[in-house]
Amino acid sequence: MRRFLVAFVLAIVAGTALWAQAPRIGVFIPGVREGSPIYDTMAKGAERLAAEISGASIKIFEAGFNQAEWEEKLTSFVASGKFDIVITSNPSMPELVNNVSKSFPKQKFICLDGYLPGNPNVYSALYNQLEQGYVTGYLAGLVSISGMKGTNPDKKIGMIIGQNYPVMDKMIIPGFMQGLKAADPAFQLDIRVLGNWYDAAKAADLSRSLYAAGADIILPICGSASQGAVKVAQETGKYLVFFDDNEFARAPDNILGCAVLHQEDLAYRSLKAAIEGKLPFGKADVVGMKEGYIEFLNTNPAYIKNVPEPIRKKVDAAIQSIKSGQLTFQVPSL
Q1: Which entry of 29, 261, 297, 316 is 20 to 30 Å from 70 by CA?
Q2: pTM of model > 0.85
């Protein structure tokens, strides 16, 4: 009996050491990595952690654009039994992860950019993109009514989205619209739906149509298809604002501002906490500017060059109001 107990304890210690010293990390990308900053930065965060731990392994799987296949592909990915923890990111993934976890009750998941409380095998973190949308919309509105070169008095801003989904409809668009209205209540938002996340030619056509209809600034949230919007902005001398990553280098004369998600840091810290046994599985967090995971890049040289100082000061004041808690945004039920 004593030998059995000793062997049992040693097995537990060995298992704990294996998890702590040589974790096996699976990265499930519901799309493709190239041209998708939110997925690329998640993968970078996982790669950074794996590089710090001797013997750690990592596999990155790209599931492609067909959402109907994501659950089946996630199931196959998990069924391989090769991962101690699987990290993914997308507002649509919590439901799929929840379904798959029922068949694999020992599998641990981290779901970023999503919200799923109550599953003891899943930790999720949702970005408060009302904040991100507000600051970006406020900047776009202030520039549009400033009279600077490339703007017009129509008080119309454009938006190109890959598709409609709950976070887009309940957080990003309302936040962006609220920011526009804070600049001037008369603003209108013209939204065009691309229908996918990769068709740059169609995104270019939609951009031309928006600019022709009176929009002087466009927010493209359409994955790699945004290259079409960049091309047209450069051709017409119009402007863009961007979400999720630092995109200034793509068109430094046309991109006015970028509100980024620090997904790499969130992926890295979440995985590290999981490996150290400190991640609260079963919990769903909401993170934003105050926590440092949403940032408006207000010190970038292109931003300082393109945007007049009086506008920059107003944007800075809005950011400070959010960080201090003076200006708050209640995350809706998704």
Answers
A1: 261
A2: yes
